[in-house]
Amino acid sequence: MDWHPRSHQKAKRTHRTSGLTDNSHALQTLVLATGNRHKQEEILTYLADLPLRILTLRDFPDVPAIIEDGKTCTENAEKKAQGIADYTGHVTLADDTGLEVDALDGRPGVYAARYAGEDASYEDNCQKLLKELRGIPTGHRQARFLTVVAIALPHGAVETVEGILNGEITTQQKGTKGFGYDPVFLIPELGKTLAEVSLDLKNRISHRAKALAKAKELLTTKWIPHKKSGRSAAR
To answer: pLDDT for 110-159, tens place per residue?
Structure first.
């Protein structure tokens, strides 16, 4: 999804070339194009039951940095996935996440990770967000997370899927789990922030979990080879 402030469209899948179901691309190894340890843990946990060898950027110490200069989460995710796939020669999964706050006209949006500056910490970003929302009453602090996951073949096709989680921004940080904006992102139905719920629950309800569920479906239905039954093989 190309995410511009206050604009929501249906998930899209893009194909640069055909080949997603080509047997020559039967998937055995998948690279995660993120250096963020917390993201790696969430993604690895979610994909753990797939019959794949999963590598991270730590397995490629000389991999070039991918500049995330896209204007949308989709652009950033596609750029990371394709760049790392081309470099490593392996199918690559990358994601990008943004946070849209209605009272801030959609900010921080795609710039969520560096909202308080290029080298901002999670704490810095949370504090800036709370400061900008100071004086905005409860009930008027609606927000949503968007995660776009891209899966790319080396020098080939790329597909994107997305997940959205609606919620509200709290007036103070709550919880010690999670990362990023989790301590200030309230799930109204639970009465808890993402930093207060268990990893197991987060991996079922979060924006990233929703996007990964769609990505996992793509991997299992299109890219991971399935063993033929004896009856089929005999034909």
So the answer is: 999 999 998 899 999 999 999 999 999 999 999 999 999 999 999 989 99
Rounded-to-integer distance, Cα 97 and Cα 144, Å:
11
Could you tell me the maximum CA-CA distance found in the chain, to the nearest angstrom?
71
**Tokens, residue 232:** 């089929």
Domain edges within the chain: 23-225
Taking only Cα atoms into account, the Rg of the chain, rounded to an integer number of angstroms, comes to 19
Kindly report the CATH class assigned to 23-225: alpha beta
The rounded distance, in Å, linking the Cα atoms of 20 and 25 is: 7
Active-site pick, 22, 69, 95, 96: 96
With 0.85 as the threshold, say if the pTM is over it. no
Element holding 82 (H helix, E strand)? helix 73-88
Q: Which residue, chain included where needed, has tokens 């990358």?
A: 94
105 catalytic per annotation: no
23: helix, coil or strand? Answer: helix
Q: Of 61, 93, 59, whose CA–CA distance to 78 is shortest?
A: 93
Region 192-201: what's the mean pLDDT? 94
d(CA 197, CA 174): 11
Cα–Cα distances (Å) from 126 to 143, 155, 199, 217, 226, in that order, read 14, 38, 20, 33, 45
